[in-house]
Amino acid sequence: MAGGEAPSPERALPAGVLARIRATFPSLSEAEQRVAEAILARPREAVFLPVKELAQRAGASEATIVRCCRSLGYSGLRELKLALAGEILTAPQHVIHETIQPGDSVLTVARKVLRSDQEAIADTLSVLDEAALEGTVAAMLRATRIEFYGIGSSMPVALDAYYRFARLGLPATVVTDPHMQAVSAASLPPGAVAFAISHTGRTRETLDALQKARGAGATCILLSSYANTPLSRLADIVLVTASRETLFRTEALASRLAHLGLLDALYVALATQRLDAAERALARTDAIIAEHRLS
Asked: E strands along 61-188, which residues?
């Protein structure tokens, strides 16, 4: 394997090469994107390609390949190939991601969509950032207020997060109107956490709210499907999930499952960190909800 430096034996290779490429793709330069596309198109072949041949396939220079690898968190092509080989050559290969065709039966569509959802969770597992998760839990535990922002397809995710964390007795709230998000963010109290959810990391209204929250001194957290976005540059902590969309699911549909899954993980982690208080809060809310059920 050629290209870049050999990895240090003390340094763990960043996992989830393919998911990492997809999450970082929008922030790569045009030339780096051609390298990324060449790897994504034939990942098994890319493991064994000499750097010159990969450069020819991508229509890029060898230096661009090294820059692309470094943008993905690897020291060079050799280190990326080692991680990629571990990902795709040591596990059984399944054809999971399939394009939906207009003539597919309802059952075929259901299978492809659900496989895409499964893959979103699997890819997210491969790119989890332990430091970001730990930082998020610590920030939320000490927060005087936790305010969730999300519009469009991220709005129901923000609402779900609010419902879950409020039931734990945390000082959670949610603002869904784009104008009021900015107003509320600018008025956050000391010690607050502003938690923004944006599939693309490029939603103008959510960016405005995060800017206002940052100006108010809040700790800013972003949950997104992509790294190195305009919103991530405003966030103190960035949580990145991964997903692959199928035909007719061009925005944040599969990614929504990954976002909800990561929020579930944070919910459980927070509950275990404040077990007694969480159990009391859940008991109170369970009793209230039970009042609204038919016997």
From this structure: 145-149, 172-175
